[in-house]
Amino acid sequence: DFHPLESPPAELFDFRLGFFSSMGFAEAIPSPGDSMHGVVHRCTEAQMLELDKVEVGYIRLTGKARPYGPPWEQLQTDNNNMAMNVSVYCRPDGANKEDENRPPKARYLEILIAGAKHHGVDPCYIAFLEKHDFQPRTPPDQFLHFGDPPADRHFTKVPESCNDEGGSLFFSVNGKVIQTCYPPNHPHHNYFHHMIQTYGPHFELGMSQLNLDLS
Question: Do the beta carbons of residue 67 and residue 4 sit within 8 Å?
Fold first, then answer.
């Protein structure tokens, strides 16, 4: 579980909201003169190091943000609306492939909106999110699947993962054992290694938590 020390709503300056890849993941894109709204999480350095493990494929940039809402309103008045330095997770230069970008998926956008409402983000920005284009939910009969494993291959337990250079990682999903073969320090290798450290070799519980959709 991740519990920031505090999480006020804020306006982030010189960045704009974008969505990338066929999945429509959100990203903050450097854009002088623009701004976007969200939440500033105050974290310990140890928590930031844990976030670095989760936010694979991203780099930390420094931005300026102005928190608002109680008790920040009085503090901002006393300090003439001064902005604070914040860390912003962004993709590296050259990572964007606009021809592959699509709007966010419906569930993902609903999570962004629910989080913004929970933390008291500017209602005008919430309205902007609510009007944003999105990809409709995929019908269950169109879900992707791993296919059937070879008939002569069965496991009584998940093999031990190896995080050495070039090592394979093993985990189970829906009764199937998956083996990854990503190069060392590849973002996907680091992500799955973090998942194994968090949930163990059985991903069913973790994936259920990450993909819960009550709609």
Answer: no
Question: Could you tell me the pTM of the whole model?
Answer: 0.75
Residue 161: CA atoms inside 13 Å, Cβ hemisphere, count?
A: 22
pLDDT tens by residue, 117-156: 999 999 999 999 999 999 999 888 888 777 777 777 777 7
**Spatial separation of the C-alpha atoms in residues 20 and 100, rounded to whole Å:** 7
> What gap in Å lies between CA 56 and CA 54, rounded to an integer?
6
Residue 1, token pair as written in the block: 């579980």
CA distance 107 to 62: 29
pLDDT, tens only, 75-122 = 655 555 678 999 999 998 877 667 778 999 999 999 999 999 999 999
SS3 158: coil
Q: Are 171 and 177 in contact (CB under 8 A)?
A: yes
Tokens 């913004």 locate to 116
How far apart are the C-alpha atoms of 149 and 66, rounded to whole Å? 52
